[in-house]
């Protein structure tokens, strides 16, 4: 038996199953971001940011009391990459999605409102960052905040 035959009989089947589990998990989790979308009002910079709660327990979403730039951007990046990979967001004409090969064949998620919400949340985040670009009120005003990684004042 060749190594290709061996791969197709064993490792390929494992890879295929892992891909199915990953796709199933994405299909189960992604609708949560639309169903529980919310707005956070940044009082300091007077911005409204479309976002999602940090936790949903038994169908009850926690209110967003503190906005974390890093958590929001990590989730937003992952959702954008998934939707770019499925072809459900307009493609960046300057390049290809980083997390997906250019010609990947992945079924669309078809979650109503997800693409639009991701685009709105991205736009809100960009607007928020633009309000923080120098000249800032004080030089120690954080450009990006994170309770895990600290403030970036550069």
Keywords:
elongated, 4 strands, mainly alpha, two-stranded antiparallel ribbon, 4 helices, 154 residues
**What portion of residues is helical?**
40-55%
Gross morphology is elongated
Q: Quickly count the helices.
A: 4
Tell me the number of strands: 4
Q: What fraction of residues sit in β-strands?
A: 5-15%
Describe this structure in words.
It is a single chain. This protein is mainly alpha-helical and 154 residues long. The protein has one domain (21-132). The protein has four helices and four strands, in the order ααββββαα. The strands form two sheets. The protein has a two-stranded antiparallel ribbon. It has a two-stranded antiparallel sheet with strand order 3-4. A hairpin with a 4-residue loop joins strand 1 (38-42) and strand 2 (47-51). Helix 3 (69-86) crosses helix 4. It is elongated, with a radius of gyration of 19 Å. The N and C termini lie far apart (59 Å). The mean pLDDT is 81.
List the helices and strands and how they pair.
Layout: H1 3-9, H2 11-35, E1 38-42, E2 47-51, E3 56-57, E4 60-61, H3 69-86, H4 114-132
Antiparallel strand pairs: 1-2, 3-4
């Amino acid at each position: 038996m060749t190594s290709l035959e061996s791969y197709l009989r064993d490792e390929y089947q494992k890879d295929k199953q892992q891909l199915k589990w990953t796709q199933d998990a994405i299909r189960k989790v992604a609708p949560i971001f639309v169903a529980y979308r919310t707005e956070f009002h940044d009082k300091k910079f007077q911005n409204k940011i479309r976002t999602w709660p940090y936790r949903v327990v038994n169908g009850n979403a926690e209110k967003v009391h503190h906005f974390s730039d890093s958590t929001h951007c990590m989730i937003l990046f992952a959702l954008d990459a998934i939707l770019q990979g499925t072809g459900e967001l307009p493609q960046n004409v300057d390049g290809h999605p980083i997390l997906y090969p250019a010609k990947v064949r992945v079924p669309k998620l078809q979650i109503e409102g997800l693409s639009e919400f991701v685009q709105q949340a991205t736009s809100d985040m960009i607007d928020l960052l633009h309000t923080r670009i120098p000249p800032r009120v004080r030089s120690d005003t954080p450009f990006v905040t994170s309770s895990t990684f600290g403030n970036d004042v550069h």
